[in-house]
Amino acid sequence: MSTVSRTTTTELTADGRPLGALYSGNIRAVISRGLLATKSTNWLVMVSGFFEPVLYLLSMGIGLGALVGSVAGPDGRPLSYAAYIAPALLATSAMNGAVYDSTWNVFFKMNFAKLYQGMLYTSLGPLDVALGEIFLALLRGLLYATGFTAVMALMGLITSPWGLLMIPASVFIAFGFASFGMGITSFMKTFQQMDWINFVMLPMFLFSATFYPLTVYPEPIQWVIQVMPLWHGVELLRELSVGVFSLATLGHIGYYLVMVMLGPVLTTGRLRRLFLR
User: Fold this and answer.
1) CB 181, CB 99: distance < 8 Å
2) Backbone torsions φ then ψ of 137, nearest 5 degrees
3) How far are the Cα atoms of 49, 86, 89 from residue 211, in angstroms, in the given order?
4) 169-179, pLDDT tens digit by residue?
5) DSSP 47-80
6) Are 109 and 260 in contact (CB under 8 A)?
């Protein structure tokens, strides 16, 4: 019954070929294809992405931390410098993994492999493709978050049982970035345009209170930083690591909820506009 109704409401291209509906309920096909591709070609890139924040933690948290000493945590109590930057590096790792999967991978599939065009000429719809690609980015974020949180625990950098919630919170952060990343990439046509993504991500990494408190900046700069999505992720994970919460915690969660809700809408709309015209 559902097959018949889907077929009768299917759109047609200019030459009469059927197109998939907006959503066919077959996200697993996109996920299965992505997992097979990762297993055969991209596994080394995924492994290297895990070690990057660990190396930052060892060099900055332990190396530089011996000179810095203690810093004030979210509740004002002193923390070791390593415990202070570790949640920020975890948020950065979630961002990087999600953005890599939802931008450069998507850019290649869209403009060179022509993968999405082929998918959308089957029963798959734009929402299937968008959710499947976002899920793959979240899976990568989950692997990074679980491994890095285990490293933090082994180093004694988690001071509260609430710290275990950093794993789902990191996936939530990755969801926000992946949702928007794929939609933004759909506007990119050249490698030079893709460089703007790195141009935006690097300042976010350096200035989102990753290595030092927000209060070291002049007040106008603080306002700009608090608009950045990574700052909200850093603060959320930092609060979870010590088990301290406030109304600001709800603000951080709300920020990513907006990203999570609007991102798939943007991505689905762009895929439909590009390939189902």
Assistant:
1) yes
2) -65, -40
3) 19, 9, 9
4) 999 999 999 88
5) HHHHHHHHHHIIIIIIIIHHHH-EEE-TTS-EEE
6) no
CA–CA separation, 2 and 106 (whole Å): 30
Residue type, 11: E
Domain definitions of the chain by residue range: 2-275
Distance CA 274, CA 224 (A): 33
184: its two tokens: 């933004």
- The string of pLDDT tens digits covering residues 76-129 is 788 889 999 999 999 998 888 888 888 888 888 888 888 888 888 888 888 888
Token match 């991978």: residue?
105
pTM of the model: 0.82
> Are residues 116 and 84 in contact, defined by beta-carbon separation less than 8 angstroms?
no
Backbone angles phi, psi at 232, to 5 degrees: -65, -35
What length is written for the chain? 277
Mean pLDDT calculated for residue range 126-145: 84
91 token code pair: 């948020």
Task: Say which amino acid occupies 10.
Answer: T
Axis crossing angle, helix 219-227 with helix 229-242, rounded to the nearest 10: 90
Distance between CA 61 and CA 85 in Å, rounded?
7
| 12, 77, 122, 201, 268 from 24: Cα distances, Å | 16, 52, 10, 34, 13
Buried b / exposed e along 127-143 (16+ C-beta atoms within 10 A): bbbbbbbbbbbbbbbbb
Sole residue written with tokens 């759909």:
186
CA distance linking residue 89 with residue 30, whole number of Å = 30
